[in-house]
Specification:
Layout (H helix, E strand, L loop, with lengths): L7 H108 L2 H10 L12 E6 L4 E6 L7 H9 L1
Antiparallel strand pairs: 1-2
Length: about 170
C-alpha cells in the first residue's frame, strides 16, 4: 500500500511520519554518541597501551643498562686481576733471575779469591810458566832525574856492560 499523499489520511499520517523521523534521528544520534564514546574509549585504551609499552621499554632499557654496567665492572675487575697476575709472574721471573745472578756472582767471587791467592800465583808462575826470582845480575835500577829529564840506569854489574845488554838479560 502506498502512503497517501493528500487528504485527511495524509494529514493523520504526517505526525506519525515526523515522529518516526524524529525517533529515527534520535536513534541515529544515540548511535553516533555511542560510536563516538567507543572511539574515545578505544583511543584512550590505545594511549594507555602505548604509555604502558613505553614504560615497559624504559624498564627494559634500564635493566639492560644495569646489566651492561655490571658486566663492564666485572670485566674491569677481571682485567685488573689479569694485569696483577701478569705483574706477579714477571716479578717471580725477575726474582729467579736475580737469585741466579747472585749465585753466579758468588761463584765468580770464589774463583777470583782462589785465583788471586799469592801462593797459587807463585805456584803457577814456577810450575807452569817456569818463572823464578831474578838473580842479582838480572836486576837493574832505573832512576829518573826530573830536572834533566834523563834516564839513568844503575846496575850491580860491571861498568862495561851497556844498557842494551842489561835489557836483553832482563828479557831472557
Amino acid at each position: 500500500m502506498l502512503p497517501p499523499t493528500r487528504g485527511s489520511e495524509a494529514l493523520k499520517l504526517e505526525p506519525l511520519r515526523k515522529e518516526r523521523l524524529y525517533e529515527r534521528e534520535r536513534v541515529l544520534q544515540e548511535q553516533r554518541k555511542a560510536l563516538a564514546e567507543r572511539l574515545r574509549k578505544e583511543q584512550q585504551r590505545k594511549l594507555r597501551e602505548k604509555a604502558a609499552a613505553a614504560r615497559e621499554l624504559r624498564r627494559k632499557a634500564a635493566v639492560l643498562a644495569f646489566v651492561f654496567v655490571i658486566f663492564a665492572m666485572i670485566g674491569s675487575v677481571v682485567a685488573g686481576y689479569a694485569t696483577t697476575a701478569a705483574a706477579a709472574l714477571e716479578v717471580s721471573k725477575l726474582k729467579k733471575e736475580l737469585t741466579s745472578m747472585n749465585k753466579t756472582i758468588d761463584d765468580l767471587d770464589i774463583q777470583l779469591t782462589m785465583k788471586t791467592d799469592v801462593q797459587r800465583i807463585k805456584q803457577i808462575a814456577s810450575d807452569e810458566l817456569n818463572m823464578g826470582y831474578p838473580n842479582e845480575y838480572q836486576v837493574a835500577t832505573v832512576t829518573i832525574d826530573k830536572e834533566q829529564n834523563k834516564n839513568e840506569v844503575v846496575s850491580n854489574e860491571k861498568e862495561e856492560s851497556s844498557v842494551g845488554e842489561i835489557l836483553r838479560d832482563l828479557i831472557d
